[in-house]
Amino acid sequence: MHADVGFHAVPSIVLLIDLLLLSPPWTISVLPALALSSTIAFGYWFWIERCFQFNGWYPYPVFEAVGFEGRVGLFALSAIVMALSTGTLKWLYGRVNGYGTSAKAQSRPGAIKSNGNI
Length: 118
Description:
Number of strands: 0
Number of helices: 4
Largest sheet: none
Oligomer: single chain
InterPro entries: ADTRP_AIG1 (IPR006838)
Organism: Aspergillus brasiliensis
Subcellular location: Endomembrane system
Helix content: over 70%
Keywords: Membrane, Transmembrane, Transmembrane helix
Membrane topology: Multi-pass membrane protein
Radius of gyration: 19 Å
Shape: extended
């Protein structure tokens, strides 16, 4: 129980506090969040399958129990849950810190050419 709290609950709580109180607003919308979540989820799945090739066992028993189709569904569902969590946290950030102005953003992080030279 203590390890589970230390590995999962404490980092989640600290990251939530960081997000709500110390971070700037997120610029990601729903579809890019779903694309990013899908990339992470299926990238992790491919890594797990690669490790299985070398080790002969999965790190979690559920991966063995559900079979190939079940793993596809499990990771697809994980991607959807991650995207919904992103949307929920973005909404929660707006409720705590305000939604900002209705003005359209003039620049976008990472868009060096459209933002101008440094």
